[in-house]
Every structure is written in structure tokens, then in C-alpha cells.
Amino acid sequence: MTVLPFKQVDVFTAAPFQGNPVAVVIGADALPEAQMQRIAAWTNLSETTFVLAPTRPDADYRLRIFTPRQELPFAGHPTVGSAHAVLEAGRVAPRDGALTQECGAGLLALRVEAEGGRRRIFVRAPAANLSPAAVPLFGAARALRVDVGAVWVVVDLGAAADVDALAPDLPAIAELSDSLRATGVTVFGRTGNPRAPLHVRSFAPAHGVPEDPVCGSGNVSVAAFLRETGLLKEFGPDYTARQGMQVGRDGRVAVRVRGDSIEIGGEAVTCVDGTIRV
Questions:
Q1: Mean model confidence pLDDT for the chain
Q2: Could you tell me the residue ranges of all domains in the chain?
Q3: Adjacent-strand bridge partners of 20
Q4: Contacts for 7 with CB less than 8 Å, ≥ 6 apart
């Protein structure tokens, strides 16, 4: 039996027990893939990550990301939370505020921003590929299929009140996701609050995640949707999205859009710091 460092990190929040939790297993190079998947099913969080030595000389570390049912090439809150974990553990140190993560989606650039004793971590997401999506489940609402490593069907519900009130048909969303080869469905609406103008919810029942509390890749996909449809001018290239209130996990995602580049980021806090026996 091997004992490895283990952390559970709440992401997109500075307050414990808010945001989105990710489990992080550090130094997991010897674990077989099947064991990683079993651990991810056991934690039963939306994602569990495994930090490995990089295979690329220009990477600081390698990350594998698992839902309870399968591996993902990229996910936002696991990337931010794992970077927080390896920094806290002293496994890596940023160079002029920069880190490079190797993962299934390739090499990703991260930036560490510290101010007033608080730290935010941003990741530049993989380039988005968008295509039309027919979603009769949501009536006449406009939708696009957005692939950023994780694949989301993004639906514009108009108002935040409609997002709040949504009672998702999870079996139907799982069927829709499978038919479109998507991770799940992310919906958004307008709050009217300039401090957090978008309210977002993400559902991935096909991956064993009925509702993802605060979804990084879902928010990247919303930003790509806004850019593609010309709606980004409503919010500007820098905005904050809120997510997680319906599941008691209120979080905030900072979004930055620069041409073809989309960054998402936020704060993170460690709630569990110990070891796991594998």
C-alpha cells in the first residue's frame, strides 16, 4: 500500500465549503488508470485529479482529470484547484507569475496573481470549436455545441430568473448529451447586476454529475458562445459569472476574453489536507 498526499480544494471561492470542490492526489505517477478511475468514483465529486511528473520539458507538472465515470482532457475548476494544491504543497513555483500545465488537452498556460494577501489563478482555456445544436428540450432558446476539451451544449435562457427556476429533466439531458457527444448542458441568463452579470448552471448527468456546482469549462463555453454570437458586447471582455447557489455552493468565476483567447480564474481554499492510501 502506498500513501500519497491528498487535498480537497474548494475552487472559485475564498470561503471554505463554497465554490466547487476538487480532490487532488499528488505524486500519483505509479497509479494505473483503472485505480485513478476507482478513486474518482469513490470521492464522488464532479472531478478528481492526479498530479504527475511532466513528460514535456516545458511543463511544470502533468494533470489527469477524472469525473466519477471517465477521464476528461480539460476541465476548469480542477485545473485551478490543482494548481492551488501544488503551489501550496511546494511542488512547483511560478516564474514571473506563470505556470505551465500538461494535460490531455496539451500544454496550458496559467497565471498566478497575488494582491493584498489573496491569490487568484487563471488558466487560458483550449481553443473553442463551436457548432449548431438542436435542443428541443429547451424550446426556442438559442443553443450551440462548444468543445473546449470538455464539450458543453450551451443554452441562452435569457433571464437569470429562468435559470434559477429551471427544474432540469436529468434523464432527458443525459440522453441529449449522449446524442451530441457532449459532457452535458450549461445554461445562462442575465442578472442585471454589473458585479456578476451572468448566472450559470451546468448539468452533466451522463458523467454522474447531476449539477456541477461551479463549472470552469462550462463558463469558458459560455464566453465562447457570447463571442461567437456577438453578445459579448453586453458584458464586455472582462466579467464575473455566478454559479452554484442552487446547490448551496455559491461561487464566482472571473472571465477574460482577448481575441481568440479565453481565460477563467478565481480564488481557491484547501478544506482537506492529508494523505490517501492506495
A1: 96
A2: 3-125+266-277, 129-264
A3: 11
A4: 23, 24, 26, 85, 88, 89, 270, 272, 273, 274
Spelled out in words, what is the top-level CATH class assigned to the domain 3-125+266-277? alpha beta
Catalytic residue among 33, 47, 175, 211: 47
Map residue 21 onto helix, strand or coil: strand
**Is-same-fold flag (3-125+266-277; 129-264)?**
yes
Q: Work out the average pLDDT over 144-154.
A: 97
**Three-class SS state of 162:** helix
H-helix segments, 89-167: 160-165
* Mean pLDDT of the 146-151 span: 96
Q: Quick check: is 47 catalytic?
A: yes
**8-state DSSP, 237:** S
- CA of 186: how far to CAs of 45, 154, 224, in Å? 18, 5, 12
- Looking at the domain 129-264, which fold is it? Diaminopimelate Epimerase; Chain A, domain 1 (3.10.310)
